[in-house]
Amino acid sequence: MSESLERLKEIGAQKIYDDTHIPVGHIESILYENFKSLSKLQFLGFISIIEREYGYDLSELRDKGLAYFNELDANKNVVINESIYKAPANKKSFMFVYIAFAVIIFVTVMVYTMGSSEENSNALALENKVIKEVKQNLFIDKNESNSSDNMQLQDEKMLQEDDNISAQLDVNSSENVNEEELQEEPPAIIEHKLEIIAKKRVWLGYIDVTENKRYQKTFKGSLKLDPSKAWLLYFGHGNVEITVDNEVKKFHDRSTLRLYYKDGEIRKVSLQEFKRLNRGRKW
Fold first, then answer.
1. Per-residue model confidence (pLDDT) at position 135
2. When comparing pLDDT for 216 and 161, which is higher?
3. 260 has a pLDDT exceeding 90
4. Which sign does the torsion angle of CA 79, 81, 83, 86 carry?
5. In which domain, by residue range, is 220 found?
6. Are residues 40 and 110 in the same domain?
7. H-assigned helices in 55-116
8. Residue 42 phi, psi (nearest 5)
9. Whose CB has fewer CB within 10 Å in the chain, the N or C terminal residue?
């Protein structure tokens, strides 16, 4: 165990929280190498904050964490052969092929075992007839399968065209109904504002929900975000003020704070709802 990690344990999780505003639970997970309670991005971000705050070298701890997360990613990417196996599309066609080969082999053996040329000629004629019948059966079966597939594709295409026509009629009807209203009074353009004000330094993870992009920042002061987008906000502590349009909302949570912003509205969300909005991830 590194000397830097021992010094951090002596300082204690509560004091580190007071200095860095990293949640106490996450600090304890880092100090005691309990990486499973953290995401890879959280782990690297918190390690960087602690190193910058105390000037300690935590490269050994960082390597252990990266080894854990890399192994976890590798396990998730294992593909089981059975899961990608696909059964033959047309078992009936393969059955005809097997029967055809069996008949051809049988007839061929019969031809070579017959002594007279006349018998050989008859056997060859029989062989040609059997082969021709088998090929015809295979051709008919294949045509029936293709015909069924083509009919299904045509039905789907017709249904899609009907849906497109109905949607176009709905759009045209809506445009005709609202045309006079739009000419009389154009809709007002609403300009939103979204600004985060932190009086104490705080770690913030913020997610663009629409484009599924993640950002993180440790700051003190003001941070403005694009109010036309939907945002998930994850604070290391909840002692912040957020201005939405002309309204100031104040939060005084000591623990982590999760918020959801969309269309000029912001509200607290639980961890479960945060994960649902974040495609199953807690960060």
1. 54
2. 216
3. yes
4. positive
5. 194-277
6. no
7. 59-76, 91-113
8. -60, -45
9. N
